[in-house]
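HUMAN: I'm a chemist; might I ask for a sequence paired with its structure tokens?

ASSISTANT:
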Amino acid sequence: MDISIFENERIDDLQYKGLKLIQKKDGFCFGVDAVLLANFADIRRNDRVLDLGTGTGIIAVLIAAKTAAASVTGLEIQPEMWEMAQRSVKLNGLEGRLDMVCGDIKNALQLFGQSQFKAIVTNPPYMNKGGGLLNPLDTMAVSRHELLCTLEDVICVSSKLLVPGGRFAMVHRPERLADIIFLMRSFGVEPKYLRFVHPSPCKKPNMVLIRGMRGGKPQLKVLEPLYVYDESGGYSKEINEIYCRGEVAEA
């Protein structure tokens, strides 16, 4: 298949069954947080899945390729990122299983309709807009800062798009955890599982993975911490399993 790759782009090997992803050489690129979220999300057979703010499409591509979901949709507001993600879909031969939609998270209810998805995943911008001047046309700034959507927008919209009993999964920063739990409960998505991600056993967590259920009963389980690197400085056993494992186990 003839897929256009432009001068300022590269193709990254995802090291799983030949999967590849098109990314900008000097733009926003996916990190370990996206890979961990794709693994952490509770995706089950025949689920209809939505990735809010799909960016390069990494999470959507991994879920479409590694699970038995019925369909996966990625929603991205930035036309340049959306177009690049579309080419990654074709590059991996995932047409028919994975669809990329260009649109605003705040308009997602109009795009898809209420209660349409069994599972929603999201890796939203981590940083508040703050008082500095940021360019809303800068893909790096939009991916990192709450310029075009807020944490509240993401959780509010997710609660309306999920079917009752639908599952929500997100990766974020530990310092936003109080806001995350407050907003999830405010919009009827009960936090069910929480896992902190540490760079290494001797360092504080720099990421948090959280799963919730629309209309779920209160009971939050804090899972064992996940370490990216072990005490010797190499990747931990679990990280190697996540990157090199076969199919994602179904719950």
Observations:
- The chain has eight helices and eleven strands.
- The chain has a mean pLDDT of 90.
